[in-house]
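Annex B. Sample input.
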Amino acid sequence: MIPEDKPFIDREDVKTDIRLCAWMGTIIIFISLICATIGVISEVLDETLVLESISWFLLAIVFAVIAIVPNMRSLTAKLIYGIESETKSQ
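Annex B, continued. Sample output.
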């Protein structure tokens, strides 16, 4: 059971969360880049590749915005980890 005054169990839990969130953020950004690339290819070829090119660009924007969530969580965990490291060293 995690105490209510601490968001993480211990330092290893923070490190695991940082790695997981960074990994998920990278995957979502990669999906966003794939959508944008398909949109560009669709526009250059003047073909409809499953969706219109504007739809691919909109999907890329949506995935890029969604990628903010794990990146912010990772940033917050790094901040908490840094504060814990600083207080433990004193």
